[in-house]
Predict the 3D structure of the following.
Amino acid sequence: MKKKFFPLWFINVINTEEKLMKLSGNGLHLSDMSYGAGIFTFENGENKKERYRICLSKNCGGEPPKGLAASGWEKVCGGKNYYVVKNPDPDVENVPSYEKWKSRVRISLYIAILFLCFGLGMCIGYLSAFSEKIAEGKDINIYSFIFPAVLFIIGAIFVTLLFISNRKLAKTDTDLGLKGKVLKTVPKENFIYTPEEEKQMLKDGKMIKKASLGWFYAPDKAAELVEKMGLEGWKFYRFNELGTILYFVKNEPCRIKFVVDYQNEFSDEYFASAKEDGWNLEFTSVTRLQGFSIWTKEYGENEDEPEFYSDNETRLKHARRMALTFGLTFLICISMIIFSIAMIFIDEDYTGILPIVPVLLVIGYTALVAEFGFFASKTIGFYIRTKRKYDNKN
């Protein structure tokens, strides 16, 4: 029996799994692991490579789904919210999904970028103060620069590692073989017309584009727009690849239900179930703080309006999640700025230097607060409108 310590193994789970496979080829086969401590326990055995998967699954108790056994996967170990399985075939194609890891890495990357920007802003402020003091012939306390420098370096390291991990995870296939069928943005089948045809339709007035800043943080307003355009004879066609521009084509008046679903993570079962119910996938995103998927469904004049959610509580939970996520992001940004200003005034050597902080730094912080404040207000407004709507129905 042998133990190995893998620090920060969870940042790049694919690399960790590749290390485990390589070790199995050298006769060390995983038998247990400590999720938090990063200590992996191995047993000696045959020099044969095995494929390992460390899967996240909330409240699973360390038990993998029974269906994995049919694909040749067997349990190795597990904990409250994860399980580890292995397959004797290192080239097995049917691999358990990485969707939950994708979600976790996206959120971690987002937070790391915030800290990187915060550290960079502090470094610029201190360097500006040092320059001013040197020009005036005053002494500087170089040790006060250690904290922002360390914060910036740590942020840069984590951003780099998480970015690499995110790129690797983005290339993984889903566990139900939906490769090429579910894209990260606009599904291929939604591009009915060629680029040349679209260009001509825009020129002839048979197609129009509409854009609204941060519309995805107020999905009810976007739904009103799409549904109103449909009744006016402009049928929703597709999004651009960034999800910021909506395309409409001239059509007979129609009724379309437009839904923006905002989730922590998506599974193959989620996509398959929605499609079986007749919903058309218009857009998916895994690049923002949490995932968006956008669906439409056309229905007749004498038909009931289709519902994507089964109950009002789910609708409210969806809206509340959005409000909390971006509301907390806004508070984090404000806290960072207050802390940065406090650091200047706490150190008596730097009292009074605030006016000489570069204008670009001030503009950058202000823009950051304005951006997240704007998005947070839109999501909070969405939650309030949703709550009022379904409170009135009850």
Observations:
- The chain has three domains: 2-96, 100-172, 188-308.
